[in-house]
Design brief:
With 504 residues, the chain is α/β, with parallel strands linked by helices. Helix content is 37%, strand content 22%. The chain has helices at 57-73, 81-97, 99-110, 114-135, 172-186, 200-212, 226-235, 248-260, 284-296, 316-328, 348-363, 395-398, 414-422, 437-446, 481-484; strands at residues 4-9, 14-19, 22-24, 27-29, 37-42, 47-53, 143-147, 151-159, 162-166, 189-193, 219-221, 241-245, 265-269, 275-278, 308-312, 367-370, 385-388, 405-411, 429-433, 451-454, 473-474, 487-495. It has a seven-stranded mixed beta sheet with strand order 16-17-18-15-14-19-20, with helices on both faces. It is globular and about 80 Å long.
Length: 504
């Protein structure tokens, strides 16, 4: 097959050229042994956008070999931090230049609104790259006193090597930058496996990798089905580290494969069932705004989606009315309409999954306060749905749904609220709303989550670490902490004065 296609966007009367081959050694190439294809679907129309090459295990071998060669010869310790910084900044410039077209492609393949993809996802991607470009020439170790008269020891933070990076479909461009930027900053090389549901923007970004001037093999992109390409990366004996974002179920498989192969370093950003606590002292209008954002943003397809809201009993009714009015105001529709705040869910499989949970909530006795009715017509659209009268044992309360489905409960005391919030196997995010400063400190300390938002929700910054605990994963992304995930610390002991006698 040809290694690029032109994709039409009828509403804009334009076409976008998209690579369809595997990106290895700065070239788009066919599979070495397979004719299998990935069919990219437009979730708004349910139509095939185009088809791209699906990498086989042998293709993963070729990509890893290219990354290893680059690490040894043209990247890794062979390039100064200043040069890494220059190239990463150049890449950020190119993404900023092409932001509109990348956003349009993202909307076609993922469903999210062009405006959201451009102004938030891609805007943050550019900032993320520039943030880590700033780190590239500032990596430091320690000088350690051993014996000032005869010895010194020091540490070096060295790039860990070839990194397999497996990213999800909910933020295809943004998650790409979270993985790529810190790895490149420290000198690692990359084999990137985008989600089979949304591979197109990763391939388009690969064109910009080459245009920016990165040496061949530094970044390789291998769209593949998870059980094939993802499994091959996780088990590969010449991959030094795997970074995975996705479900907890798949994260367990990645961890098992890593342990059974070469005990490669892992960072896992997994699922969540994140709680919001609304206390009686809170600004209820603002709390409702943030809670609506927490479940509606990205159509609820967010690992930190605030999918459980617990409200202090004295303000429950007032808050619920406010929340319903806020969620009703969200426009779910065509991603190419600037009035749209959310699009369809990403696929038929995800659509069926979300509706399975909505029906389970009804069957288990939860009350539908908003939504819960299917649309007619094309597209995997799910309107925001709010359940009340919930119990802790319900599936919609316990399990991650990954769609715009919210459960709302109530509590009497602070201790009860904290207990309900922590009553989950996940620990990615949590939020609380209160104007009592002492309460904010107590509760933020008591919540079992890697990120706690106080009087806000779901805002992340490139200089602030992000990650989870419990079933939400291990390791951290963003901030200086992410650099540690891609480095290996070497201790050097230097003897310049001690003599020994032998035998002892």
């Amino acid at each position: 097959m040809a290694h690029s296609v032109n994709i039409s966007i009828p509403s804009l009367n334009k076409q976008i050229s998209v690579p369809t081959g595997l990106f290895i050694d700065n070239e788009f190439v066919p599979s070495v042994d397979s004719q299998e294809l990935i069919h990219a679907i437009n979730p708004s129309t349910e139509e095939v956008i185009c088809s791209v090459v699906a990498a086989s295990p042998k293709d993963i071998d070729v990509a890893v070999a290219a990354a290893r060669k680059a690490f040894k010869n043209t990247w890794g310790k062979n390039v100064t931090g200043f040069e890494r910084s220059r190239l990463i900044n150049k890449l950020a410039d190119l993404i900023e230049r092409d932001a509109q077209e990348l956003a349009e492609l993202e909307s076609l393949n993922n469903g999210k609104p062009v405006r959201i993809a451009r102004d938030f996802d891609i805007g943050d991607t550019v900032q993320c790259l520039r943030y880590y470009a700033g780190w590239a020439d500032k990596l430091t170790g320690q000088s350690l006193e051993v014996d000032n008269k005869t010895k010194v020891s020091f540490t070096r933070h060295e790039p860990i090597g070839v990194c397999g990076q497996i990213i999800p479909w909910n933020y295809p461009i943004n998650m790409w930058s979270w993985k790529v930027a810190p790895a490149l900053a420290v000198g690692c090389t990359i084999v990137m496996k985008p989600s089979e549901l949304c591979p197109l923007t990763a391939l388009k970004l690969s064109e910009l990798i080459k245009e920016a001037g990165f040496p061949p093999g530094v970044v390789n992109t291998v769209p593949s089905f998870g059980p094939i390409g993802g499994a091959a990366l996780a088990a590969h004996s010449d991959v030094d580290k795997v970074a995975f974002t996705g479900s907890t179920i798949t994260g367990r498989k990645v961890m098992e494969a890593a342990s059974k192969s070469n005990l490669k370093k892992l960072s896992l950003e997994l699922g969540g069932k994140s709680p919001h606590l609304v206390f009686e002292s809170a600004d209820l209008v603002q709390a409702a705004n943030w809670a609506a954002l927490g479940i509606c943003y990205n159509s609820g397809q967010d690992c930190t989606a605030g999918s459980r809201v617990y409200v202090q009993e004295s303000v429950y009714d007032k808050f619920l009315d406010l929340l319903i009015s806020k969620v009703k105001a969200q426009v779910i529709g065509d991603g190419f309409d600037d009035k749209t705040g959310g699009g369809p869910v990403v696929s038929k499989g995800q659509y069926d999954r979300v509706w399975g949970y909505i029906e389970a909530g009804k069957q288990e006795g939860a009350k539908v306060a908003l939504g819960g009715v299917k649309r007619t017509g094309k597209g995997y659209y799910v309107d925001p749905t709010i359940f009340t009268e919930i119990r802790p044992d319900m599936k919609i309360v316990k399990e991650e749904i990954f769609g715009p489905v919210l459960v709302v409960g109530r509590f009497k005391t602070e201790d009860e609220g904290v207990f309900l919030a922590n009553d989950t196997n996940y620990g990615l995010g949590a939020g609380l709303h209160s104007n009592d400063a002492n309460q904010c400190m107590r509760v933020s300390s008591a919540l079992e989550a890697g990120t706690v938002w106080v009087n806000q929700y779901n805002l992340l910054y490139n200089n602030v670490p992000f990650g989870g605990k419990k079933l939400s994963g291990i390791g951290r992304e963003l901030g200086s902490y992410a650099l540690e995930e891609y480095t290996s610390v070497k201790a050097v002991h230097w003897n310049f004065g001690e003599k020994i006698d032998w035998p002892l």
